[in-house]
Every structure is written in C-alpha cells, then in structure tokens.
Amino acid sequence: MKKLLPALLLLAAACKQKEYNADMLVKNAVVYTVDSNFTTAGAFVVSGGKILAVGSADSLEQKYNAREVLDAQGAAVYPGFIDAHAHFYEYGMGLQQVNLVGTQSWSQIVDSVKVYAERNTDGWIIGNGWDQNDWTDKHFPDKAKLDSLFPMRPVLLSRVDGHAAIANQAALNIAGVKPGQTIVGGEIETRNGKLTGVLVDNAVGIVTRKIPEPTPAMVDTALLSAQKNCFAVGLTTVDDCGLPYPMVNIINELQHKGDLKMRLYVMLADRAENYEYLFKKGAIKTPGLNVRSFKVYADGALGSRGACLLKPYSDSAKWSGFLLSNPKHFEEIAPKIAAHGFQMCTHAIGDSAVRTMLKIYAANLKGKNNLRWRIEHSQVVSPEDLALFGRYSIVPSVQPTHATSDMYWAGKRLGKERLKTAYAYKQLLDQNGWLPLGTDFPVENINPLYTFYAAVERKDLKGFPAVGFQKENALSRTEALKGMTIWAAKANFEEKEKGSIEPGKYADFVILDRDIMKVKGSQIPTTKVTKTYINGVKVYDKK
Ligand SMILES: [Zn+2]
Questions:
Q1: 180: left (phi over 0), alpha (psi -120 to 50) or beta
Q2: How far is CA 145 from CA 108, 114, 139, 177, 199, in A?
Q3: Which one, of 379, 388, 390, 471, lies nearest residue 430 by Cα?
Q4: I want to staple 434 with a disulfide (CB 3.0 to 4.6 A). Which of 124, 191, 340, 487 is the partner?
Q5: Where does the Amidohydrolase domain start and stop, copy by copy (predicted)?
Q6: What is the average pLDDT across 149-156?
Q7: Separation of alpha carbons 56 and 60, rounded Å
Q8: Per-residue pLDDT for 516 more than 90?
Q9: Distance from the CA of 86 to the center of ligand 1, in angstroms?
Q10: CA 486 to centroid of ligand 1, rounded, Å
Q11: Is residue 100 part of a domain?
C-alpha cells in the first residue's frame, strides 16, 4: 500500500491533466514569444481566442486535448505584427483611387489617370502616391495637361506624403482657389499670374474639403480591402493616425458584425469636434478597437520642404519650413488632453518642430509619467533635445523605411552634418529603452518585413548602400522585432493583451516561410507570411 499510493496519486493526476481541453495546439515551431526574456519555445496552446500555455510539444500534448493541431513544420512563429503608425482607412480608400506610387514621370502619371478615367466614368478623379524625387525632372509639374484632358471633371493628385498635391482647373474652380491667394501654413503656387495647380500643405485641404463624402459602401469596402492586404503581410493591429470621430462607430459596427477582424488603435484628428466627442464619451476600448489618443500635426514633410527646421534648408538658403499651426494652438490643446489622461501624438519631422513639441509636452508632463505621449516620426532631432524624450517619458514613434526611402535626397535638404541627427533610431531607442515601429503606409509599403529590414540593414530593396545608411543607427533584430510587436503594443497601452505569445494574451500570431531572426539580411525582404491568425482564427493562408 505504501508503494501503491504514490503511484495511484500520480495516475490520478495524469488523468486529470489530460482532461484539459483546448482549441488548438501549434507545434513543431520555432516560437519567438517576445516575452521579457525573449524566450523561444516549440509549441503553444490556444483556447477561447487566447494563448493558454507555451512550452514544449511533449509537455503540452500530455496536458491538453486540442481540437486542432497545427504542425508548423519547423517554421518560425512570431506575435502578430503591429504597425504603430499608419493610415489604414486612407490606404483602403486609396485602393479605390488612382495609384501613383512608383510612377517615374509626370507623363506616366497622366497616362495612369487616363486609364482610370476610362474605367471610372464619373465623379472626381483622385490619385495618390507620386513623388517628384523619383523623376528625372524633379520639378513639380503643372496642371496644363490635366486641364486639356479633363476640362470639366475635377482631378486631384496627391504627393506620396500627402503634403503636396496637384489639382486641375475644374477642381480649383469648385474650391474657389484664385491666383495669388495665400494661406497660413501652406502655399498656392502662382506663376506669371496663373495657378499652376500645385498646392502645398494646408492649401491641399482647400480642395480636399470639396471632395464629396464617400458613400457608406465605399467606406466599408475601403476598410475591408485594407484589412485583406494587411493580413497577407502579417499585420494583426494597425494604428490609424488621425481619423474623424464618425469613423469610430463605422469601425465598431463592422467589427461587431465580424467583417472587420483587424484590431485598430485609432487616433482622432486634431479638430474641435473630435475633442468634444471623446472628452464627452471617454476612452473607447473593445478587443478590436482602442480610442484614447489624438493626432496632431506640427509640421509637414522633408521632401516637400514643409518640415520646420532650426536652420535653413541646405538646398534652399532662406527657407526653414514652417509650423502648420501657431504654437499657441498646441499649448492650448495639450493640457486638455492631459487632463483627460489621453495620449497626444504629434507629427514632427524637422528639428524645430520636434523641439517646439518636446517643450510643450515637457511643460505638461512635468517629469517621468505614464501618459506615453508620442512624437510621430521624430525624424530630425537636435542632439541637445534627445535627452528630453527620456526625461519626460516621451515616446519617439518611428518608421524605418522612411530612412531608406529618403536617404537618396535627405542629405541635400539637410547637409552632411545635420543628416547625422536624422533617422537616428538607435539613439532614440536609447532614450527610454523602447521604441515603437511603423510604416506610415500608404506613404510607404504596408509590409512590416520591409520595416524590419530597413531597421536592421538600413538598405533599400536593391541592397543599397552596401554598408547601410548611417548604420550606427541600425537596430538589432531583437530590437526591431520588439519594435513591431511588444513595444508597438506598449505605445498603444496594450502590452498586457498583445505583442507577445504569452498565456492570457490574444492568440494573434504569424508564421513566416523563413526565420527573420536568422536568415541573411538580403533574404529578409523576400520572406513571406504563410499564415496569419487573430484570436486563434486563421485570417490569411498563402497556400
Ligand atoms: Zn502619417
């Protein structure tokens, strides 16, 4: 009996353990859990849409009865990727418009518009994504060709960063734009007393405000088509930076119906009605939607010389760019956002814009804090200002593909010395010890593996430059993976529910056809997502 009792107890325990039921066992995998020790595991169990346990296949198989077994066949598995800065809805709308990304000349753009206009015979013609830096003739175009092709139909074609656009006369007429007209924080280009159609920064808005509202069906199609493409690159959460408040209900309903499975972190745009809405309603939090943040614009972009610099542009001696609003505006809204405990996220590219915002943030945050106020892009940062990020727990939110997209011409804008203070991701990471990564799509490609590649290799897709651009600011692979998982989750106050494969978290994960932590750097960008899961449910399968 003395011998039998422990054996019986063991047997009873074993039987009891096998009674645990689970929805799925993922095994034969290299699971990068991205937990605090950056542990890898061979298997994990999913139940009720959440991670139940992580460990070895043997131990988990003994303990759990899984309805479904997913044999990863040795593949690497990562937490679902999070894009900490993107324009998800806008990207989806763009999929229904003329795609001008990668166009090599103005005449190629005009051709794309013609093709689109033949297939879509009425309404505004809206295009996005051109970048004159990609052209042999790098001057802004004028509207003459568009006027002759479309004398009656309004056309508006935005630059890749959205900070400049070209409109035809029909569009300018609807918006009532006149030659010589001026606007604060923008430019309406007039040459020899005539409008060229080129609009910079705030001037773009005069025309975009006249574009008829999209129909509800168009909005749904935009969100669902954006989701489809994002799942195919392993994204399971996207930060949508700067939406109008009515989008919150639309997203919520589409998620409620089960059509929109993508998790979204929504920043509302800097507009009176959005503040009024969220201050009154309070933060919104469901498993798929988190609204507790505002997106503010301090300045424009470097490419169109709209970024606000401390000293003039190196290729435009008397021009330093400008702030998009009077600093008083930021000083007024910051304490209101702080009083509600909400997050302020400010687009700041130039070192002057970054400094202005760091100071306003500092005055409100006072010292170390947990409000996680963000400076989106933090692209050019004066070395003197770097320490402010750490001192006031201000989060730099960066997009590594910007470095490798801009590197061909950024030196012209900034000069050699100042270029060293730009795209300084490693230095920015050092300030708080964590750094969220994003893409800013549709400005950049949606693929988070391009982010990973640009962050660690600092090269373009052709492998240029061979030594990497300002390689001292590259991130390690571990840092880059954290940046697009757990640190991005933290920037969204969601590190307790996602960003790693750990018990209790959402079963959001991706399987890749290569292990990006181990393959040669040049193989990272061609690595493909084979499966994407949200809540333990497959939302993408490459097959
Ligand atoms: Zn953006």
A1: left
A2: 12, 11, 15, 19, 16
A3: 390
A4: 487
A5: 68-540
A6: 96
A7: 6
A8: yes
A9: 6
A10: 21
A11: no
Is 196 in the same domain as 304? no
231 CA from centroid of ligand 1 (Å):
20
Note the pLDDT of residue 28.
98
CB atoms < 10 A from the CB of 98, how many? 22
Q: What is the pLDDT of residues 223-241, one digit of tens each?
A: 999 999 999 999 999 999 9
pLDDT in tens, 162-191: 889 999 999 999 999 999 999 998 999 999
pTM: 0.87
Q: How far, in Å, from the CA of 242 to the mean position of ligand 1?
A: 8
In this structure, what are the phi and psi dihedrals at residue 46, rounded to the nearest 5 degrees?
-115, 140
Give the CATH number for residue 423.
3.20.20.140
Among the candidates 475, 504, 524, a domain finishes at: 475
pLDDT digits (tens, 9 = 90+) for 55-82: 999 999 999 999 999 999 999 999 999 9
Strand pairing category for 43-47 and 343-348: unpaired
Written as one letter, the residue type at 539 is V
Buried b / exposed e over 5-26, threshold 16 CB at 10 Å, is eeeeeeeeeeeeeeebebbbbb
How far is the centre of ligand 1, averaged over its atoms, from the C-alpha of 298 (Å)?
12
C-alpha of residue 17 to centroid of ligand 1, in Å: 50
pLDDT band (50, 70, 90) for residue 122? confident
What is the count of structural domains for the chain?
2
Q: Are 528 and 511 in contact (CB under 8 A)?
A: no
Q: Closest by alpha carbon to 305, among 318, 321, 324?
A: 321
201: domain CATH number is 3.10.310.70
pLDDT tens string 439-475: 999 989 999 999 999 999 999 999 999 999 999 999 9
Give 212-242 as a DSSP string.
PPPPHHHHHHHHHHHHHHHHTTTEEEEEEEE
Which stretch of DSSP H or E encloses residue 208?
A: helix 202-208
Helix (H/G/I), strand (E/B), else coil: 193 = coil
Tell me whether residue 383 is in a domain.
yes
Residue from 446, 470, 9 nearest 231 by CA: 446
Instruction: Quickly state the pLDDT bin for 2 (edges 50, 70, 90).
Output: very low
Tokens standing for 167?
A: 């409109």
CB atoms within 10 A of CB 270: 22
For CA atoms 422, 445, 91, 195, give the dihedral sign: positive
Among residues 274, 143, 255, 268, the alpha carbon closest in space to that of 197 is found at: 143
